[in-house]
């Protein structure tokens, strides 16, 4: 096998790697997914996706059955199999809270490199501090047999949870950082399925071929921009609130300007998840190390605006429940609060850094009897926040509540009947933490409604 139809390995079958492995098999490539986690590999090999992502289960089963997709925990098998190895392992926030931890990248690269027996390309996909690709190159130099000429490249990904299959099969761009024509050709061949699919649909996928540093920076720059956009509109929400404006109409109005665009201008309880919050912190830390800390100082403000949204919900809750705030914050003891939503966004079971769960914890800390319900995130939420009380349905959570907080905009909540819920609740007070409810409908049903 060679550049015509390279065989692909994806190392790390978490959210990113599993989605890529499955989607590239769907595009016709022969694919191997590798992970050190035996349980995860057994699950995937058995046809079950270990996380919630619309459409992915079906693709997994189809491509397993077609024999194009296999999974392994064996580095040697991976090294023997693939021409191009994509590193998709996690890069969690370091214990010090700022920079990214590269232990998994290091383990995957060294584990693989020492078993390689022929020329291959190692491509980084994980979100990393700029400079990591050069470091990976050195690692490979140290651990792979020198005569093989193993090369390194970088290709960031931009997939959004809930839309991951679409984002991989039909990306809005492909960015590759390479140092040689050979690496460029191998990566082109590795993505030819994506370009071919686009051609049959009369689309084009822009391809940016650049250097390592730019490829690495594109990823964090994109996430920093998205986070900034969200905090910008949340800052406007703060001003609207004191000025008596409506941030939803404001967002719609500025969004008609194509230079601004109407997406990612949804004000609410702010951004969470495994990417935006940690990426903007790691980006600041890296810029600081490089002596450009000042350039990214605004990202600190973006972070603060975002975190302020969480405490704002707590203040609103106190206001609605008629509780005064002391120096230690409001006392909500004796109240019961339904928290609807535990995931960081709808159509996902991911609760990492979820604003909803953070707010639920704040409410509980203030003394409220908090009852959480989420359509897909309950299992993960119970692990992340074991001290909170969980209810098996929306109705169970709302029954007897003095206040309802909608903190993730699941369709189940947006389409809920405020009349029926009003009969279950002890008090008809609702905080719309995502500005996703029809306020007229809720008000008409007798609810005291507060948006963000
Ligand atoms: C984000 C980026 O959107 C992807 O492009 C990127 O590839 C990914 O991170 C990553 O680095 O892997 P994701 O974390 O799946 O994707 O979630 P988003 O859809 O970006 O939402 C992030 C958070 O922002 C959510 O909590 C969401 O509720 C919030 N958000 C989003 C808002 O509060 N307002 C908006 O207008 C949009």
Overall description:
The protein has 452 residues and is α/β, with parallel strands linked by helices. It has two domains: 8-209, 3-Layer(aba) Sandwich (Rossmann fold); 211-452, Rossmann fold (3-Layer(aba) Sandwich), CATH 3.40.50. 45% of the residues lie in helices and 13% in strands. The chain has 19 helices and 16 strands. A six-stranded parallel sheet has the order 3-2-1-4-5-6, with helices on both faces. A six-stranded parallel sheet has the order 13-12-11-14-15-16. Strands 7-8 form a two-stranded parallel sheet. α5 (103-113) links the parallel β4 (84-87) and β5 (121-124). α10 runs parallel beside α13 (297-320) and α13 (297-320) crosses α14. Bound molecules: uridine-5'-diphosphate-glucuronic acid.
Strand order of the largest sheet: 3-2-1-4-5-6
Global mean pLDDT: 96
Instruction: Determine the CATH topology of the largest domain.
Output: Rossmann fold
Distance between the termini: 56 Å
Q: Write the CATH homologous superfamily of the largest domain.
A: NAD(P)-binding Rossmann-like Domain
Descriptive terms for the model:
19 helices; six-stranded parallel sheet; Rossmann fold; single chain; 13% strand; 16 strands; UDP-Glc/GDP-Man_DH_C; NAD; EC 1.1.1.22; 452 residues; 6-PGluconate_DH-like_C_sf; elongated; binds uridine-5'-diphosphate-glucuronic acid; UDP-Glc/GDP-Man_DH_N
Question: What is the topology?
Answer:
Blueprint lengths: L7 E4 L3 H12 L4 E4 L3 H8 L10 H10 L3 E4 L2 H7 L2 E4 L15 H11 L7 E4 L7 H12 L7 E4 L9 H6 L4 E4 L3 H10 L1 H9 L6 E4 L1 H32 L3 H9 L20 H14 L7 H24 L4 E2 L2 E2 L5 E5 L14 H11 L3 E5 L4 H7 L4 E2 L3 H5 L4 E4 L4 H4 L3 H7 L4 E4 L6 H6 L3 E4 L1
Parallel strand pairs: 1-2, 1-4, 2-3, 4-5, 5-6, 7-8, 11-12, 11-14, 12-13, 14-15, 15-16
Antiparallel strand pairs: 9-10
Helix pairs in contact: 1-3, 5-6, 10-12, 10-13, 12-13, 13-14
The protein binds uridine-5'-diphosphate-glucuronic acid.
The site of uridine-5'-diphosphate-glucuronic acid (UGA) has 21 residues, from helix 10.
């Amino acid at each position: 096998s060679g550049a015509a139809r390279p065989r692909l390995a994806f190392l790390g079958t978490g959210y990113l790697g599993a989605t890529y492995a499955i989607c590239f098999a769907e595009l016709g490539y022969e694919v191997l997914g590798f992970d050190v986690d035996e349980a995860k590999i057994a699950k995937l090999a058995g046809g079950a996706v270990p996380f919630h992502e619309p459409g992915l289960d079906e693709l997994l089963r189809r491509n397993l059955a077609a024999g194009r997709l296999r999974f392994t925990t064996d580095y040697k098998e991976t090294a023997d199999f693939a021409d191009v190895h994509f590193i998709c392992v996690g890069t969690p926030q370091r214990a010090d809270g700022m920079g990214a931890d590269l232990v998994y990248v290091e383990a995957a690269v060294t584990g693989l490199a020492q078993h390689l027996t022929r020329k291959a390309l190692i491509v980084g996909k994980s979100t990393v501090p700029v400079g990591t690709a050069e470091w990976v190159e050195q690692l490979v130099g140290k651990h792979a047999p020198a005569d093989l000429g193993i090369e390194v490249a970088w290709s960031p990904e931009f997939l959004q949870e809930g839309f991951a299959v679409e984002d991989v099969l039909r990306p809005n761009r492909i960015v590759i950082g390479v140092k040689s024509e050979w690496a460029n050709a191998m990566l082109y061949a590795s993505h030819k399925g994506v370009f071919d699919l686009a051609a049959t649909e009369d689309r084009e996928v822009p391809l940016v071929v650049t250097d390592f540093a730019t490829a690495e920076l594109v990823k964090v720059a994109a996430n920093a921009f998205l986070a900034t956009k969200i905090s910008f509109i949340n800052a406007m929400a703060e001003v609207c609130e004191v000025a008596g404006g409506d941030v939803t109409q404001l967002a719609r109005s500025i969004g008609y300007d194509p230079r601004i665009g109407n997406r990612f201008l949804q004000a609410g309880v702010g951004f969470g998840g495994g990417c935006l919050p940690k990426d903007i912190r790691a980006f600041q830390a890296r810029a600081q190390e490089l002596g450009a800390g000042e350039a990214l100082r605004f990202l600190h403000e973006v972070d603060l605006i975002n975190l302020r949204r969480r405490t704002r919900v707590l203040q609103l809750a106190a206001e609605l429940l008629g509780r005064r705030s002391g120096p230690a914050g409001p006392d909500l003891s004796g109240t019961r609060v339904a928290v609807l939503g535990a995931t960081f966004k709808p159509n996902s079971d991911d609760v990492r850094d979820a604003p909803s769960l953070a707010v639920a914890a704040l409410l509980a800390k203030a003394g409220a009897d908090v009852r959480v319900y989420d359509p897909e995130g309950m299992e993960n939420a119970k692990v992340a926040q074991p001290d909170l009380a969980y209810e098996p349905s929306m109705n169970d959570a709302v029954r007897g509540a003095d206040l309802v907080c909608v903190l993730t905009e699941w369709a189940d909540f947006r389409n809920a009947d405020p009349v029926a819920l009003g009969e279950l609740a002890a008090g008809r007070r609702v905080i719309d933490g995502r500005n996703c409810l029809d306020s007229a409908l809720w008000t008409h049903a007798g609810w005291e409604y507060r948006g963000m």
